[in-house]
Amino acid sequence: MSQEVLEISVMVDEQFDVNFNLADGILGVILSIFEG
């Protein structure tokens, strides 16, 4: 099961690599709010 999830994660990462990089800053802000 975990191997299938890992493969899906890799496929998603390859397809939306740019979106992830773009959202990384947004996620950082959200995490900062929760940590604050």
UniProtKB/TrEMBL annotation:
GO MF annotation, one: aminoacyl-tRNA ligase activity
UniProt keyword Ligase present: yes
Domain of life from the UniProt record: Bacteria
Keywords, sorted A to Z: Aminoacyl-tRNA synthetase, Ligase
Record protein name field: Phenylalanyl-tRNA synthetase subunit alpha
